Amino acid sequence: MKILVTGGAGYIGSHTCVELLNAGYDIVVLDNLYNSSEKCLDAVKELTGRDFPFYKVDMLDKDAMEQVFKENEIDSVIHFAGLKAVGESTKIPITYYHNNITGTLHLLQLMEKYGVNNIVFSSSATVYGMPKTVPITEDFPLSTTNPYGSTKLFIEQILKDAQAANNKLSVTLLRYFNPIGANKSGKMGEDPKGIPNNLLPYVAQVAVGKLEKVHVFGSDYPTPDGTGVRDYIHVVDLALGHLKALEKKSNVPGVHIYNLGTGNGYSVLQIIAAFSKACGKEIPYQIDGRRPGDIAECYADPTKARDELGWTAERDIDEMCEDSWRWQSTHPNGFEG
Ligand code: NAD
Ligand code: UD1
């Protein structure tokens, strides 16, 4: 089975490529390298001992993308490619809508033309907006608070409409919670450009001495220690969720929606403590005000993925931090460093 992985040089895509190759799938990777490095794909090849075609192609260039479909017999697509920074999306919303939505429309046009009927899409817990309660199940009301989130919600709708019009299409929407961690080898991991927005890479860069201290955004939330609670999930568990989705839902027409989370919530201070244990260093932090748009608590009810896909996240918070630290400490400047 040959899988086209869009955004396959990125953080989650590259970890998924490793698991796909190890499980015996053939892959084709498409990425414009806007937020990633080709060196990451070298690591994928080294770790798996397998080669695969890579196309440095922008999904906005439909003709270039068509070459990929012409030259490869694709059975399924896993669609990771997209811009993902929430703050940036509020500053350049049109760029976000154009990149994420137009890119997806091109992909769907080509899938239709070349008779490819399976797609797994990277959605996000962001589509639950400001959930009224936790844990979150897949049938919670959907809304968004920023243009990035809107692209996810709109693409979910586009895929639902495409499925309604083509009863051969299998669409799987995977709503990720907070992916962290790295491949055990320490050879691949998250490599954010500039100062990280997300908590874990920020903490990791403080631990390695690149940043001075963690700014904790708010300590007055209605949570056990007052700081924000999230469902952190090991990126390898997340990657394996994609394999389960392919295994169970390929060629099963319909729209299949799953939360990929652990079902456990950890606070900012618990994450700092877990990372400190993993790296054996004190991590300096200071309590600041809340970050606008943040919610107190967000964690998944992952029961549906367990029951229908046979998937459960297995790696705990200590393993997530240890694996992140192995990558960060050996690659303080990421792939290009
Ligand atoms: P990432 O930025 O590391 O990977 C995305 C990849 O897509 C990058 O390699 C980038 O170069 C590529 N890309 C972007 N626009 C492209 C285009 N027009 N043409 C070709 N390639 C393009 O991000 P990630 O963390 O690996 O996220 C993967 C997907 O999962 C994204 O769709 C993201 O929105 C979604 N997601 C991520 C998180 C998270 O916390 N990381 C959470 C929920 C959902
Ligand atoms: C962010 C995105 C969300 C996306 C999710 C997963 C925002 C507003 N939301 O959510 O759309 O789906 O990532 O990629 O960016 N924190 C600090 N200090 C920091 C950074 C974060 O205290 O320097 C806190 C936050 O307030 C939050 C927690 O750490 O309580 C996690 O933050 P983050 O990693 O940014 O993820 P989310 O807020 O869940």
UniProtKB/TrEMBL annotation:
Protein name: UDP-glucose 4-epimerase
Enzyme class: isomerase
Pfam families: GDP_Man_Dehyd
Molecular function per GO: UDP-glucose 4-epimerase activity
InterPro entries: NAD(P)-bd_dom (IPR016040), NAD(P)-bd_dom_sf (IPR036291), UDP_G4E (IPR005886)
GO biological process: galactose metabolic process
Keywords for this protein: Carbohydrate metabolism, Isomerase, NAD
Quaternary structure note: Homodimer.
Cofactor: NAD(+)
Gene: galE
SUPFAM superfamilies on file: NAD(P)-binding Rossmann-fold domains (SSF51735)
Species assigned in the record: Candidatus Ornithomonoglobus intestinigallinarum
Gene3D superfamilies: NAD(P)-binding Rossmann-like Domain (3.40.50.720), UDP-galactose 4-epimerase, domain 1 (3.90.25.10)
Reaction(s) this enzyme catalyzes, per UniProt: UDP-alpha-D-glucose = UDP-alpha-D-galactose
EC number(s) reported in the record: 5.1.3.2
